[in-house]
């Protein structure tokens, strides 16, 4: 809005100044000529007011741009931190679920071996002692393997819990930051709009002041004086042309009374 408004103000100022430069009014005299000069002068001042307003709208646009850039910088920093923790959480959780699956499989294997040993012990008379001993060795290895996997599983569970807590904490901070940033954005935008309306008022006040000067300069125009001035510079003479004489044919003369100072129309030059 501010950038477009700045361009509109500058273009309007240029058009007003161009109008002033091209407006000559060479045929006016006296008080009306002076009034026209004053109108052109004050119109040029109005053009300057709008040109200044264009620069002020540019400043408002720059303020808004700088503010927005800073908000984007803070938002991106918070988002990057959360994204990093989220990636760590995803990685930890993936390892945790994989280890969980392995741990449960090891537990099932160990339980099967225990059940197998119990069955052999209950049927000792039909079981070869060496087979029972092999089963016990397998069970012992399976138990060790289960305990190792259980330790890994517990460590990964602790890691996931910490990653989740860190992610949620940072996520909470980011949300609080976003709320703060939006509150500042609303307040800053409101403040800028207030400045914008003040600028609008200043333009109107200055333009009305120049318009009032125009009215004050136009009001004293002296119509009778301007007409007399026009007559002074453009009069054709102070005497009337003579009456048109009638000239009879056949040599008959016609006496015509000619007033003193009269002259023929052919001698009059009209301007």
Question: Top keywords for this entry?
Answer:
271 residues; mainly alpha; Substrate Binding Domain Of Dnak, Chain:A, Domain 2; 4 helices; rod-shaped; disordered C terminus
Care to describe what's here?
The chain is mainly alpha-helical and 271 residues long. The chain has a single domain (2-234), classed as Arfaptin homology (AH) domain/BAR domain (Substrate Binding Domain Of Dnak, Chain:A, Domain 2), CATH 1.20.1270.60. The protein is 80% helix and 0% strand. It is built from four helices and no strands. It has helices spanning 2-22, 30-122, 129-218, 223-234. The longest helix has 93 residues, at 30-122. The chain is rod-shaped and about 180 Å long. Mean pLDDT is 85; it is low at 260-271.
Uncertain segments are 260-271
CATH superfamily: Arfaptin homology (AH) domain/BAR domain
CATH class: Mainly Alpha
Multimeric state of these chains? single chain
Tally of helical segments: 4
Helix content: over 70%
How many extended strands?
0
Biggest sheet architecture: none
CA-to-CA gap between the ends?
A: 57 Å
**Can you tell me the CATH topology?**
Substrate Binding Domain Of Dnak, Chain:A, Domain 2
Shape summary: rod-shaped
Average pLDDT level: 85
Q: Quick summary of this structure?
A:
With 271 residues, this protein is mainly α. Helix content is 80%, strand content 0%. The protein has 4 helices and no strands.
Topology:
Layout: H1 2-22, H2 30-122, H3 129-218, H4 223-234
